[in-house]
Design a protein that fits this description.
Length: about 130
């Protein structure tokens, strides 16, 4: 099924909203799906904001690499960019990060609620928990 196909049956409005919610969540996961981007988020969380050079000084990455990762985070709406002369000053979009956290919790809660009571887990795996 492609990202634009909707499953048939059921309430199409609810299904369209579910698909849109999943697409939004997947976009956030893609943006956060690289260790360097998580490190950038961590760096920015410890301060009110920073320019690319300040972020580079705390990471073992080239300036061009950090710039590319900053662009991905910005495109996902997870960062604000304030242009100051020739520099961009980056800050976390706390509202979007909070929304991402809520949508992630909702996703796992719905998934766990759909799990049958007596589901056997494959050997060596742990059950999914919303509190983990």
């Amino acid at each position: 099924m492609s990202g634009t196909d909707l499953p048939t049956g059921g309430n199409s409005n609810d299904e369209a909203e579910d698909l849109a919610s999943c697409e939004d969540l997947a976009a956030i996961f893609r943006a956060l799906g690289h260790p360097a981007r998580l490190a950038i988020i961590k760096q920015l969380a410890s301060r009110k904001g920073a320019c690319c050079g300040e972020i580079v000084s705390h990471l073992p990455l080239a300036q061009s690499t950090v710039s590319q990762h900053l662009q991905v985070l910005k495109d996902a709406g997870l960062l604000f960019c304030d242009t100051r002369g020739r520099n961009c000053h980056y800050a976390l979009n706390w509202q979007m990060l909070s929304l991402a956290g809520c949508r992630t919790r909702e996703f796992w809660e719905r998934l766990n609620a759909a799990q049958p009571e007596e589901t056997e887990q494959p050997a060596g795996t742990l059950p999914v928990s919303a509190t983990d």
